[in-house]
Amino acid sequence: MSVLDDLTHAERETIREQSAPSWVEPMLATLTEDYFSDPDWIFERKLDGVRALGFRDGDRVRLLSRNRNDVGASFPEIVEALAARHPGGDDFVVDGEVVTFADGLTSFARLQGRTHRTDPDEARATGIPVYYYAFDLLHVDGHDVTGLPLRRRKVLLRHLLDWDDPIRYTIHRNRDGEAFRREACEKGWEGVIAKRASAPYRHTRSTDWLKFKCSKGQELVIGGFTDPKGSRHDFGALLVGYHHGGDLVYAGKVGTGFDDETLHDLGSSLRARERRTPPFDRGDPPRDGVHWVAPDLVAEVGFTEWTRDGRLRHPATWGCAPTKTRRTWCARSHGAWFREHRRRERPRGGGLERRQGAVPRRRRHQGRRDRLLPPGRGPGPAPAP
Known about the structure:
Oligomer: single chain
Strand content: 25-35%
Largest sheet: 7 strands, mixed
């Protein structure tokens, strides 16, 4: 019996015969600050792990990252689970995320203990448990099903696999996107993915999938900057760090969140503070194309989490101020961060209202993005070891 047996005639018109594919380009979400609720959309928890497509063709099972790297050796128990007997047979391609947990939250930092393992036994020996949250079905039983509406694909997915650990079905909420995002942020999740329920699976970045993110923020010391590239002017990225045990520890580069005015004003301030030697006492900052500065400016940086080696993950600046007087601002608001992200992640051909279908009118979030740095706060604490 095939999971396709219950498709209507109209639904069968949207699928096509297809031999087992060797690769499928994954669908990617577009970042937005416009959070909304709509009965024509579903909302899933945004997981902080490794995106992976699961391919099964008879006895052959592969687990490939979004960059087409085979990550099966890093997560052998997931490969074995996909290779087990399933109600939907042995010919399918599923989309999902590999995660692990720390204190009840998905943790990319902890997952790094397994991501670069090339020996399955060594991966298991780390003692880091992993799970595969499947959220979409692209191919099954000799057919490409990406033309079906998302809600229908999720029904087929639900009936395809046995949902025993480490394979888990990604549940969703209907309609209430704003309430779900508030809940996600209160629980410390990374955010929510909004998906148009009627949309096909598109092999590109699309506005049919939208990211509602929850970002952490922390003040970090600016210790240098890189040269600009391309059309960028004044500087490329900030090199930032944090104080720990009397040392200034390098934490990473922050290259987004700057509008033209900020690039000019902050660039002038940085050039006036240039020095010959790096201010960082620990860490491994880059050396090529770098200008060191006196560490007397701090930037408030948004990021998703600290990595295991003490680096920022997905950083973007929210604003910055002198560490002592705090009398002038070198960035105006958190809004610059959102504007830069929208420009960087928006697909070619327009904004949120594209020919794929109009995104529903929604209330614009009026939270952190309009907040300036509060005076009197020093650089944040060092990350937990």
